[in-house]
Amino acid sequence: MALKSIKIDNKEFDISYEILNPNQEKCILFLHGWGSNKEIMKQAFSPFLKEFKHIYLDMPGFGKSSNEYTLNTKEYAKIVKTFLEILNFEVVAIAGHSFGGKVATLLNPDNLILLSTAGILEEKPLKVKVKIFLAKLLKSLGLGKLTKAFRSKDVEKMSENMYGTFKNVVNEDFSAHFISYEKNGMIFWGEEDSATSLSAGKEIHSLIKNSSFDSYKDGHYFFLKYAQNISSKIEKGIK
Cellular component per GO (predicted)? Predict the structure, then answer.
């Protein structure tokens, strides 16, 4: 593991990263999802894709990478782009899971690998709608501090700046970004995914003109079980 300090728009970040197969010329960057870190991506893909250099990094605010700011997805993409430029990495592909898939899409790589990525707005369950309504009501009454009671378990341990970041990124519609991506897309999905539905994956496939689509009988972290098969398809599909 290594740390690289970078500064963007007067904001400083210490980025934790790891490189595998360092002597290989072609690079693949792996980006984790929200609430995750580089270790889960490494756990899945490090045994495979041996002809590629692997770059695993913790995006700011996750794993061992610092973040003291409230960010949005475009800023995350800018941070990752700057990181790659500073270390002089020219990647041939970027693989992104969930939130990481949105960041990967903005980076516009020659080969975009999406793993149950976020970015398609879907209807929220009724209980979620009720929580949002009550939180907004309390805030309008000057009782904003009480809204913490309505936060999901996924976010209740977040710092305030990361909670603000979460609110910035959670309801983004990335349809236009998927449509505008014109290079080589490879989309992989969990058929039992409850975080990003299979129908959302099929919609992204329809939006990205030059893309393939494969699904697997598992949930949001399906790639942990099927990494070998996915890696084989990546090797064959990279252009």
Answer: membrane
